[in-house]
Each structure stands twice: as C-alpha cells, then as structure tokens.
Amino acid sequence: MPILYNDSTREFHLQTEKTSYIIKILENNQLGQLYYGKKLRHRESFQRLFHVEATPNTACVNEGDLVFSLDLVKQEYPAYGTTDFRSPAYQLLQEDGSRITNFVYQDHQIFSGKKKLMGLPATYAESEDEATTLEVSLYDEVIDVEIRLSYTVFEKLNAITRSAQFINQGQAAVNLTMALSASIDLPDADFEMVQLSGSWARERHIKSRKLVPGIQSIASTRGTSSAQQNPFLALKRPSTTEHQGEVYGVSLVYSGNFLAQVEVDHYNVTRLMTGINPFDFNWLLENGDSFQTPEVVMVYSAEGLNDMSQTFHRLYRTRLARGHWRDRERPVLINNWEATYFDFDEQKIFELAQSSKALGVELFVLDDGWFGKRDDDTTSLGDWFEDKRKLPSGITQLAKDITDLGMEFGLWFEPEMVSKVSELYKTHPDWVIHVSNRQMSHGRNQLVLDFSRQDVVDYIYNLMAEVLRDAPISYVKWDMNRYMTEVGSLELPANRQREVAHRYILGVYSLYERLTTKFPHVLFESCAGGGSRFDPGLLHYAPQGWTSDDTDAVERLKIQYGTSLVYPLSSMGAHVSAVPNHQVGRKTSLETRANVAYFGAFGYELDVTMMTDAEKEEVKTQIAFYKENRSLIQQGQFYRITSPFAEDGNITSWMVVSDDQAEAIIGYYQVLSQPNPGLMRIFFKGLNPEFEYAIDGIDETFYGDELMSAGLQVNRYRINEHPADFSSAVYKVTRV
C-alpha cells in the first residue's frame, strides 16, 4: 500500500518504489513532518524520528511547557504567529484584523486514484491503481475555515504531488493573503540550490549556489512563469552530480506569478516552499467560497540530477500532457516566420509548402501576419479573421490547398493580446488589463486582454473556434509576447483587484480547456516570445512548447540542456533555422543545426526555396533520419553526459536510450576547435552492459560496459573529417 497510517502514533507514511515521506499529527493537533528521502521500511511507530528539547530564547505553545515549540519542529503546512518565526505557507486576514489562525487535524481519507483540480491543470491517473491519494482536513473553529491538504503518490513513477484547498464555511469573509502549495522542512542545510534562470533568447540556464542562513528565492511577478525564472527548484548535496548523490526537486504546475523559496534557520533547518507568489495577491473568501492552490510535484532521487529529471520526464510526458497527441509521434514541421516574417502572400506561402513537401516535411505552419491588416507588429491583434490583401482566397482555401499536397496545416494565434490599432480595441477598450486614470504601458506595441473576464474569454474562443472549425487545421502555435503591467480589471470591485493576475491565468486555462476539448485532433504548441511561459501548467494542454526564439545551435545547447532538467524532449520545439542566425548572427553548419534540433520536436524555420540542391539533399537526409528515430527521441530515456555549463563548457554531449536498451542516439558537440586537444572520450549512459552494440559509420562493435566505462574515443572516430568550430556528430547505436 503506497500510503499507510499508524493509528496509535497518528503517522502517515507515503511510499513510492524509491522514496518515503512521513508526516505526523503533533501533540497540538497540527501537522508535523518527520522524514523525506530514500525509502524506509514501514514501522508501527516512527517516533524515534521526532525529537524536541527545551531551548533558550524561544516561545512555546502550551503554558508551563518549555519544550514544545513550533520554532523547533519540522512542519507540514506552517502558519505564522504561534511560535514559528519562519516563513509561513499561508495567511488569512480576518474581519477583526487578526492574521492568527490555528488549523488542527480534523480527519483524513485515503483512496485509490486522483481527483481533478477544479479549473487548474494537474497530473492525473488513467486508472485507480496508478495512484493513491491522502486528503487531510485541517480546521480552525474560530473562523470556521477548512484546509484540505491533498497528497497523491505515483508509486511506480516515484513522484508525490501536493496541493491545498481553502474552504470558508463561516459567515464572515476572510482574505487569503498567502496560499502556497507546499512546504518541506529538511533537517540540515548542506545543500546547493539549483534553479533555471535567464531571459529572452537565453532561457532556463542552470544556476547553482550554496545555501546560507536566511532566505534565498526565485520568483516571477510578470504575470507569467517567465523567461527570467522557471517554476522549478532543486536542492542537491554539494557532491551530487548528474548520476550520483541526493537531490530534492519541486516543480509547480502553474503558469503565472510564482514563488519558490528556501529558508535556512538558526538551527540550519531548511524550509523549501513554493506556490503562487504572495506579492500583489489576495483572494476574498466569502461564505461558501473555496480557493484551490496549484499542484506541486515533488521528486527525490538518491541517484543524481539525471535520475530526478527522468522521473519528471516520465510523469510529465505520460500523466501531465494528455489527449490525442500525448503518445503520438510529432510531425516534422516548417514555420514560415524566419523565411518571410510579415512579408508574404498566397503564392509565396504555397511555394514554401510545395518545396517543403518535396523534402519530406509533414506540417506547414503559417505564423504571424495572416489576419486583420497585419504588416508589422503594431496592428490587428484581436482581429482573428484573414487579411484578404495577402490571402484573397482565405485561410480555409489556403489550408485545403496545402493539405491537398499531402501535408498538414497549422496556424499562429496570439489570443491573449490586442493591438490599439484593431477593430477589437476600437469596440472594447475596456477589455484590456489596466487601471483607470493611469497610463497604459505597452510591450511589442500590444496590450493584454483581461482574461479574468468571462466575456473576453468567450469572445476570443468564438473567433478561434470559427477558424478551426472551417479550415483543415491540425496544429496551433499559441503565442504570448508581453508581460503584465498596470494590473487591474474594470469589471472587478476594489476588494478583488489583487485577484486579477490569478484570475487571468485561470482564464487562459479555461480557453485552452475549451479549445482542446472541442478540437481534440489539433496539436497545440505553447509559445511566449519563445520560452517565457515554458512550464508544467501549459504542458497539460499543449504537449509541446517553443523552447526559445533563439534558434542558434550553439546557444540551444545550453537552453535545451537546462530545459531537460525538468521537461521531456517531446515537449521541446527545436528547429533548424537560417544562417547567419537571426538572433546572434552566428554561422553554423546545416549538419550541426540539425544535430542539436534532433533532440526535441524537430522542424525548420527558414526559406527552403532559397536552398542549393546540395542543401536540399542534406535536409532530405536529416528528415529521413528523424522520422526513423523520432519515437526513440520523443519517448526514450534522456541522459545528460557533458554539460555546457561546466567551467570550460566547450563540449556538450547527451543521449537518449530506448526502454529495452536496444537502441540509442548520442549527440556530441564542440563549440570551438582546439589544437592538439589530447584524448577525448564520450562515456555512454543507460546501455545494457551485456549487450553488443554497433554504431553507424564505425566498423567495430562494442559491448555496453565498454561504451559506458571505457568510452568512445572521439579522436579516433572523428566528429568531423576536418576539425572546425561549431562541429558535432550524432551516433546511432543499435544492439547487434
């Protein structure tokens, strides 16, 4: 049984195949935390894991008792103000101005399966035997409010999810000023904090720092999960590497403002917590109202960062992403954006599609510029009807013409935005997020629609649904190109203005839910100026995302390597683009561009009609290789081998291995060529040591233990016939 309850000691033991998570009802009936880590055998009592002793200069709970203090106890969902002086997980402001609460254990239930979170994306179980859930009810009798803590154990996937729901059963309203999703207290602070940080065109770079006393955190206040920080945080031991050592990872299934925080107290206890950012947040709970926090996924590994990542990959690929495209091979696509930008017509688009089809491309995507009077980025967002100047036959006919070639057709939308120069803004200037009598800032010449309003979401849904209903469209690229400013809604009353940012994200989720339900055959790819909203929340609706606007092969090594810390290859849109690269101006070979882009949802973003015959033949070969191996790439086990974030960072290598270990593909990349470099080897991972393997292009065969322990000598089997900067090789490995 994945969840066990010791009735006499009031302890809960949550178990996956490799981990244990143990919590306890304390003597004051609040919840305490005993252990999280490598799996322990179950005992009738874990009391030996709980110890507290009298300590000077602190506050204690019970009169006359100088021992029991919440300042000294590891807690499960801590509150502020009743002897714990560390950061709380939640806070409720009451009508009398008090922020003091006392939520105590009321009851619990354990059941098979997993409930849905109302209005929020979350992991799921396809059958009841895949997951087991514990719900613990906490109750404050003074304010008549309940908190339901939910824990789901995916035993075979080695993951535990958590969330909290607040229910106001009292007559008086309360204000929820903080509502994080989870808190974990760890007994020491000998950790390094690992985060994914960056900016536009350099998203999700791996950053690491040693914990120190006090608070260290990452957060977003931009209205999205952001390119600057990703809603993921890991704590690893200083000696932990990709393939050995302890690591705790937490990932928030949410796309808006978030906080992930680590606090080290005066006894070197570490408190890790994450959830909706309390900055500029408040939620009014009137009688009968409830508030659901987003879900947190917790993963512990004793086998290094890569093992943690593989757990996230399996869970997110198979039990977070969903729908028609979850397990299907993703089509090889071409996007016209870098080929034409806004400057195209029907003939140009059709010629691109024809030429792409001849090379083996399966899906043509028409990007920005097809609607309204959109000749640049200053107009027409919100006017989701075709521009007959460019497309006189209309989107439906163009889509039919391209599908008649034997290709699929996809279309770009930016549904959450509006241009001031548009029919929509002219009709509904009140439909944008803004504050009366204040200037409206812009980003990319556009404003943010108020998705906290149901009428706005309904209007956009009807426009998009009409296009998707009339035309044979099988793919949608959903973009979002600016952050929120002057956050306010003209529809909400004053006491609910701090709800706007979260209500906006709920509106985005509801639009995704309606569209994916109505058009289940459509493959949605999320995008936000590249990777500014690449998070688990959107992965629930869009099984792949545009990893970054930066398509330079060298920069993509860091971006894709960092992204893989949490997200599976099947979720990463990765394209071959033109050179000089449009973001950094670098020239890399067509071979290297493809060798990087293979490890994701593969495609092209360039003008194939301008290619030489030799380049076209090379593209044909690339597409054939990807089609032959995309099931392995998209569904295999991914291993990071050599990091571009290492001190030198000149070499990157990674590989993907089939579940049966019969096939593998390894990528090896060298940024700058080096004179007389000495012995260079790749140490493979994940192979069966007993299997004999052949490597394409190499006459010899190798046993798995040789490739993993002795490695492959790159100097002998050169990555390029003539060494050069930005060189690479991809090796296909097959069991003999």
From TrEMBL:
What does the record give as EC number?
A: 3.2.1.22
| Reactions performed catalytically | Hydrolysis of terminal, non-reducing alpha-D-galactose residues in alpha-D-galactosides, including galactose oligosaccharides, galactomannans and galactolipids
The answer, when asked if Plastid is one of the entry's keywords, is no
- InterPro entries referenced in this protein's UniProt entry, alphabetically: Aldolase_TIM, Alpga-gal_N_sf, Alpha-glycosidase_related, GH, Glyco_hydro_27/36_CS, Glyco_hydro_36, Glyco_hydro_36_C, Glyco_hydro_36_N
Q: Where are the transmembrane segments?
A: none
Describe the location of the Glycosyl hydrolase family 36 N-terminal domain by residue ranges.
30-286
Q: What class of enzyme is it?
A: hydrolase
Checking Pfam families in the record gives: Glyco_hydro_36C, Glyco_hydro_36N, Melibiase
Superkingdom per UniProt: Bacteria
* Cross-referenced PANTHER family: ALPHA-GALACTOSIDASE C-RELATED, GLYCOSIDASE FAMILY 31
Name the family the entry cites: Belongs to the glycosyl hydrolase 36 family.
This protein's name: Alpha-galactosidase
Q: From which organism does this entry originate?
A: Planococcus faecalis
